[in-house]
Amino acid sequence: MQTKYLQTKTLLPLSSRMAEDRRLHSEKVALRFGNNLRRCRMLAGLSQEELGERASLHRTEIGRIENGETEPRLGTLHILAAALGVSLDRFTEGLPVLATRKPPPPRPK
User: Among candidates 102, 100, 96, which has minimal Cα distance to 25?
Assistant: First the structure.
């Protein structure tokens, strides 16, 4: 099995490296998304509590999303966008794109 070095200088099998790359990518996406949400909220002149009331979410959930601690589901994204009066595009601006994807499962014939 091939191995590659991570920045931490530990050897990992190639499949583990890919999993680590995906985890790091996911963290970057969550942080960038959170920053975009915070920017939209602040431009709307709302506190986390006020946005939470509009979106029927708890203030701590807004904070966790903004801090990149959690990735919201699609339904939550729609609720937040509606509460802020913005399109979903505003939340995804500048999100990094993963260079490789898992291949789709084979289709039955």
Answer: 96
Q: Measure the CA–CA gap between 36 and 95, rounded to whole angstroms.
A: 9
Ordered by where they begin, the domains of the chain are 11-84 (1.10.260.40)
DSSP-assigned states of every residue in 43-80: HTT--HHHHHHHHT--HHHHHHHHTTS----HHHHHHH
pLDDT in tens, 41-83: 999 999 999 999 999 999 999 999 999 998 889 999 999 999 9
> Which residues fall within 8 angstroms of residue 43, CB to CB, at 6 or more apart?
none
Q: Residue 55's closest CA among 86, 30, 29, 26? A: 86
Whole-prediction pTM value?
0.70
